[in-house]
Design brief:
Blueprint (H helix, E strand, L loop, with lengths): L5 H17 L3 E12 L1 H4 L6 E4 L4 E12 L2 E12 L4 E8 L5 E9 L11 H4 L2 H5 L3 E7 L1 E4 L7 E5 L4 E11 L2 E11 L12 E2 L2 E10 L17 H9 L4 E5 L3 H12 L1
Antiparallel strand pairs: 1-2, 1-4, 3-4, 3-6, 5-6, 5-14, 7-9, 8-11, 10-11, 10-13, 12-13
Bound molecules: 2-acetamido-2-deoxy-beta-D-glucopyranose (4 copies).
The site of one 2-acetamido-2-deoxy-beta-D-glucopyranose has 4 residues, from loops.
Length: 262
């Protein structure tokens, strides 16, 4: 009997590879541009539309989540992507308190694998607002696609040091949008997106100015503010953390994310 040779194995591998290449890859396709209250809990990212990619493609799903005041902005894209490797990336661009920006991107190679429905694992930023103490400082606060129609002066949480007023322009991945953002921050520069210029296929351009706080009309008694300050310190320490995981490790990503964010 003939032994099993390396060449046989190689042939089988090549056969397997050809078999894979012969299939057309289908991916979900959508673009998301939304601003609202509580969106990260209710948002269903499932795309109705699918597309067939050219050879050499992967599927991708990428989203930017920004929180200012009570509102959340979601800018997301699903579709084919080329010249990329399988990976999952989660970035906390701006840590709490106050303005928060995170992004998530998943590149995968199986049929319709860009099928994430919910984003509350990583996109629910509402806890930040509830669990941090307020200070007497205030900033104009708003979040809107295009231009804010108003920007009421809202209290900042302790730990914020300035007011941020900026615009983020996002193009690519079927998105062409500008988001206006105002709110309290501890940033000293225009780094809401921590100088990242892409999230998946989306290109990001940030312009902003950093302003001093609006002068409070009266000084409030701050003695009741101390209770939850520990949270603020811990969350701030997780500054602009970025992680890209090989695809096989993706099950560990969420435990890492929840440790950092919760
Ligand atoms: C999202 O929408 C899809 C299709 O419209 C549906 O099948 C799925 O159950 C929804 N997911 C959630 C979590 O509501
Ligand atoms: C995006 O929209 C703006 C104005 O709405 C337009 O001037 C610009 O050409 C668009 N960019 C792309 C890449 O479609
Ligand atoms: C704040 O109020 C508490 C009692 O409510 C009082 O004991 C304390 O002196 C006040 N502090 C300031 C800075 O006014
Ligand atoms: C607010 O933050 C400042 C500096 O970060 C700290 O010194 C102060 O004790 C904090 N106040 C409260 C009430 O937590």
């Amino acid at each position: 009997m003939r032994g099993f040779h390396l060449w046989d194995l190689l042939f089988l591998i090549l056969l397997g590879a050809c078999g894979t290449l012969a299939h057309d890859l289908n991916c979900q396709r959508s673009s998301t541009m939304k601003v609202g209250v509580g969106l990260s809990k209710t948002f269903n990212w499932t795309a109705e539309e699918t597309e067939t990619c050219d050879s050499g493609a992967l599927c991708q799903e990428s989203i930017i989540v920004i929180k200012a005041g009570t509102k959340t902005a979601l800018l997301g894209s699903k579709g084919c992507v080329y010249d990329s490797m399988e990976s999952i990336t989660f970035i906390q661009h701006s840590p709490p308190p106050d303005l928060v920006a995170i992004s998530y991107s998943n590149y995968c190679e199986d049929m319709l694998c860009n099928n994430r429905e919910e984003i509350h694992h990583f996109g629910d930023l509402s806890t930040y607002a509830d669990s941090i103490v307020q200070s007497s400082n205030r900033c104009p606060t708003c979040l809107a696609l295009g231009t804010c129609s108003s920007a009421p002066s809202l209290p900042c949480v302790n730990g914020s040091t300035r007011c941020y007023e900026g615009k983020i322009k996002i193009t690519g991945g079927d998105i062409n949008a500008t988001v206006e953002i105002k709110g309290c921050t501890a940033m000293t520069n225009c780094r809401l997106m921590s100088r990242f210029q892409t999230v998946g296929p989306m290109l990001i351009k940030e312009t902003c100015s950093i302003q001093p706080f609006i002068k409070p009309r009266f000084a409030e008694n701050g003695s009741s503010l101390a209770s939850h300050f520990g949270f603020g310190v811990r969350a701030t320490a997780a500054i602009a953390a970025a992680i890209t995981c090989p695809f096989v490790l993706r099950k560990y990503l969420w435990s890492w994310v929840s440790q950092c964010l919760c």
